[in-house]
Amino acid sequence: MAISYNKLWKLLIDKNMTKTQFRIKADIGTSTLAKLGKNEQVSMDVLLKICKSLQCDISDVMEVK
């Protein structure tokens, strides 16, 4: 089972937001951002922070393939 965060990166482009701006707004660390960039698993707490900061649903930022 593979995880993809491509939807997250597309959403950031749509919102005209850099990864650094996103990281600060979502209050996540640089290592977590690196995990997202490598499509690695992150905690549900992190995913909820992301969704809350971007005002979206979890399905808008990730998918399981």
Strand and helix map with partners:
Blueprint lengths: L2 E2 L1 H9 L4 H8 L3 H8 L6 H11 L8 E2 L1
Antiparallel strand pairs: 1-2
Task: Describe this structure as you would to a colleague.
- It is built from four helices and two strands, in the order βααααβ.
- It has 65 residues and is mainly α.
- A two-stranded antiparallel sheet has the order 1-2.
- The radius of gyration is 11 Å and the shape is globular.
- The relative contact order is 0.27.
Which key phrases capture this entry?
two-stranded antiparallel ribbon, 4 helices, mainly alpha, globular, 65 residues
User: How does the helix and strand content classify structurally?
Assistant: mainly alpha
Helical fraction: 55-70%
Largest sheet: 2 strands, antiparallel
**Count of DSSP H/I helices:** 4
- Give, in spatial order, the strands making up the sheet with the most strands: 1-2
Low-confidence stretches: none
Rounded to an integer in angstroms, the radius of gyration calculated over CA atoms is 11 Å
Which range does the strand content fall in?
Answer: 5-15%
Number of strands: 2
Helix/strand order, N-terminal first = EHHHHE
Shape: globular
Mean pLDDT over the full residue set? 95
Distance from first to last alpha carbon: 6 Å
